[in-house]
Amino acid sequence: MRVPNTVLNYTAETALAKFRIVCYGATDGSVKQAAASTDLMIGVTEGFAYAAGDRADIVRSGPAEIEFGGPVTRGQPLTSDALGRAIAAAPAAGVNARIIGYAEVSGVLGDIGSVYVGAEMIQG
Question: Is 3 exposed, middle or buried (0-12, 13-18, 19+ CB in 10 A)?
């Protein structure tokens, strides 16, 4: 059975690499590449890169492909590294971290893997 995803269109505030996590930009309707677990992550670029000013299709929910920025184990919550790649979210006790979703597969730095996009906040 196919699980559809939700894709919405935004303006790229900055250049966006493919398979990266994005967050809201400075203005309504814009996005930029995420760079930290504190960014308000909203989706994933999947297989296309975009230049600043381009219209960008962003996967907001459901299954997507993403680039891993380090070792990831299936089922782990994922957040962003400084380059918008997915890394395991492991906030310290009492610390909040925003996540983009949960890994569907295990992988290592540079792998393109599956994520189930569902942005939320977790606390260690």
Answer: exposed
Burial class (CB in 10 A: 0-12, 13-18, 19+), 94: exposed
Instruction: Convert the pLDDT of each residue in 7-55 to its tens digit.
Output: 999 999 999 999 999 999 999 999 999 999 999 999 999 899 999 999 9
Sequence letter at residue 55: R
CA 30 to chain centre: 15
Phi, psi of 93, deg, nearest 5 = -55, 130
pTM: 0.94
| Cα 20 to Cα 65: distance, rounded to the nearest angstrom | 9
